[in-house]
Amino acid sequence: MVRGSYVVFITLILSICEASRRQCFLCRSRGELGDCRDSFPYNVTTAIGQVGLKLAPCSSGWCGKTIEGFRGPRDDFGTATERSCLTQAPPDGEERCAELRINNKPSLLCVCRGDLCNSAPSTSFQLSFLSVGLIILIQFVREFL
Predict the structure, then answer these.
(1) Digits of tens for pLDDT over the chain (145 positions)?
(2) How far is CA 122 from CA 95, 113, 115, 116, 119, in A?
(3) What's the N-to-C CA distance of the chain in angstroms?
(4) CB neighbours of 33 closer than 8 A, spacing ≥ 6?
(5) Do the beta carbons of residue 35 and residue 53 sit within 8 Å?
(6) Where are the alpha helices (DSSP H) in the chain?
(7) How far is residue 7's CA from residue 13's CA, in Å, rounded to a whole number?
(8) From the centroid of its chain, how far is CA 116?
């Protein structure tokens, strides 16, 4: 009975941590000199206080990055990059990038699930770190209970 209580408690704590981590970068810039374009140099600490860049909670847990006119002219008004929170998950629940047309310009839309995943770096390291921590915690609970 005691072991079951610990498992429920640990699951609850991990769920709360996961829910509180779901944030996306919100920004939009046009041209080569914008702060929202790739390569995106910001993370959770360096983004604070940047003009035009926000960290926002995202209830769906899905973030997006759109590059409008990515095959167009590379002048100040040729390419627009936007990072945002999706209001809902894709129907199939798959992370991906796809080419589409926005305002009759070839564009690239990428969707991802996870905390601040719409920055340039991948979140796979964070997830593997969390998994290893969970395994160690489970082994600790098994040995001492």
Answers:
(1) 555 555 445 554 544 445 456 899 999 998 777 789 888 899 989 998 898 999 999 999 999 999 988 765 554 456 889 999 999 999 999 999 999 998 888 999 999 999 999 996 433 434 444 454 556 657 656 776 6
(2) 12, 11, 10, 9, 8
(3) 11
(4) 76
(5) yes
(6) 2-20, 124-144
(7) 10
(8) 3
Check: CB of residue 80 under 8 Å from CB of residue 109: no
As a residue count, the chain comes to 145
Q: What's the rounded Cα separation, in Å, for the pair 132 and 102?
A: 41
Q: Give the amino acid at 77.
A: F
Q: Which single residue is written with the structure tokens 């990428």? A: 110
| CA dist., res. 16 & res. 108, Å (int) | 33
**Euclidean distance between CA atoms 109 and 107, whole angstroms:** 7
* Encoded tokens for 109: 């839309």
All residues at 6 or more sequence positions from 27 whose CB lies less than 8 Å from its CB, including other chains: 35, 36, 52, 53, 54, 81, 82, 83
Count the neighbouring beta carbons within 10 Å of the beta carbon of residue 105.
16
d(CA 33, CA 37): 8
